[in-house]
Amino acid sequence: MPELRENEQKTLLALEKLKGRAPVNQIVQISGLAHAAVMRAVLSLTENKLIVTYEQKQTLVFLSEEGNYHATKGLPERRLLNSLTKLGGEAKVNSVVEEADLEKKFLSVALGWLNRKGWATIQQGTLKSLKEPSLGDDEKLLQLLTKKSSLIVEELSPELQKSISVLKGRKLVEIKEKTLRELELTDDGWTLVKKGITVQEEISQLTPELIRTGNWRNVKLRRFDVTAPGPVSYPGKIHPVQQIIQHAKEIFLEMGFTEIRGDMVETAFWNFDALFQPQDHPARDMVDTFYLSKPNQGKLPEKAVVDAVAKTHENGWTTGSRGWEYSWSPEEAKRLVLRTHTTATTIRYLTEHKEPPVKVFSVDRVYRNEKLDYKHLAEFHQIEGIIMDRKVTLRDLMGTLKEFYQKLGLEKVQFWPSYFPYTEPSLQSTVYVPELKTWVELCGMGIFRPEVLAPLGVKHPVLAWGGGLERLILLKLGIEDIRLLYKNDLGWIRRTPVCQR
Ligand code: PHE
């Protein structure tokens, strides 16, 4: 026999007092326990076969607000008839209404029922009573309901039950279903109760007092079911996107990089020209890039740099390249854009930090004039970085990225040849996502071309990479629609675990 808890003991005792069978609400009264406590006790007592429960559905009928009004005043047809009788059994409708002091809104209903019940007729505005009816079943029910707030339908006489539907149609009464639970002691239950139960108080909280005095040894501590489901709690937490941003930043910091940040608004010069992207390059088109209309121009850097960039574009300058062979426009370079990549930020930084070594990264927002869909956003984040030193090679670049991805939990990385106007050689990294069983492109990279470095006066090789962050987040969180990240979908935010791998 399992040990009984305090509430179970009290429930059994109450049931014994009630002769072995009683509805739950009576047990609540006798035991002094809360309804929920009794119901919990019922669960385990039933499981231990000490009691059985009987469930009975009950239909309750009670007065609506209007029903309550008529129940005290009398049904409107009854009020009219009474007044009609008082006026001699025949009278003008108006005077009957006045006599009855009947509210206008009830008049048509009252006349309708007078007729339907066959109590009176109406002809040319005159009412004539036909009989002196005794109380109808509907009226009897209303009267009963004024005495008791609700009645159990199943216990009413068939006649009264029939009147319920009429009154319900008139919206004077309402109906509610209720389950009545009755408990009964089983034979085992009786045996146990007969042996005598002494209720032992249980302690549900261990106090310092109990520990200090050593009294905890003497009291009965309540047992808890630690496997019972508890309420789910949703504590405040950092947004999943921010969590991954923080994680990515930590990894770069661990690897010896310094974080840099730049402006979201850049001149086309730093976003495109300094990166050897010709001025007629399709990426510069309004279709892809957001240009500012106010102000629409920014400042170019010192003349020497601008001139060198211009010549490199036009004829290759001292770089040995032929350039793009067109006439470079400073006006085009002055235009302001929402930066389309964070390479604008690293190249600007590089121009101001020409001494090796340079090892910086940024995680920041970029903008592209994209149509939004499950794969594209117009505002997103890029992770970007550069390494400049006397002797760095493509192997260092691949090694660095491999290490970064591995620290993020992406083990298999491949590098493919690619093309960017500002790097040579250029690569694209792809990682294998076991959950999707596919390779996914993650970031572009390469070694900055002489056409980029020479005009800025940078003398040492520069490894550069950059790629979208949201892609990475989708992979990590296993979601398919990029828009979910910024929808403030509370359900999704709550479901996303605080701890990511
Ligand atoms: N800027 C490129 C992009 O937005 C990525 C890149 C950065 C490529 C640096 C090469 C070097 O996709």
Fold and architecture overview:
The protein has a domain at 243-265 and 339-495: Bira Bifunctional Protein, Domain 2 (BirA Bifunctional Protein, domain 2), CATH 3.30.930.10. Helix 4 (65-73) crosses helix 8 and helix 5 crosses helix 6 (93-100). The strands form 5 sheets. Strands 10-13-14-18-17-16-15 form a 7-stranded mixed beta sheet, sandwiched between helices. A 4-stranded antiparallel beta sheet has the order 1-7-2-6. The two termini are 47 Å apart. The chain is an alpha+beta fold. It has helices at residues 6-17, 24-31, 35-47, 65-73, 76-86, 93-100, 107-116, 137-147, 158-169, 187-195, 208-213, 240-254, 268-271, 303-315, 330-334, 343-352, 394-407, 450-456, 469-477, 490-495; strands spanning 21-23, 51-63, 90-92, 120-123, 126-129, 150-152, 173-185, 202-203, 220-221, 258-259, 265-267, 336-338, 358-367, 379-388, 413-420, 423-433, 438-448, 462-468. The mean pLDDT is 92. Strand 15 and strand 16 (423-433) form a beta hairpin. It has 20 helices and 18 strands. Helix content is 38%, strand content 22%. Bound molecules: phenylalanine. The site of phenylalanine (PHE) has 10 residues, from strand 17 and strand 18.
Q: What would you say about this model in short?
A:
The protein has helices at residues 6-17, 24-31, 35-47, 65-73, 76-86, 93-100, 107-116, 137-147, 158-169, 187-195, 208-213, 240-254, 268-271, 303-315, 330-334, 343-352, 394-407, 450-456, 469-477, 490-495, and strands spanning 21-23, 51-63, 90-92, 120-123, 126-129, 150-152, 173-185, 202-203, 220-221, 258-259, 265-267, 336-338, 358-367, 379-388, 413-420, 423-433, 438-448, 462-468.
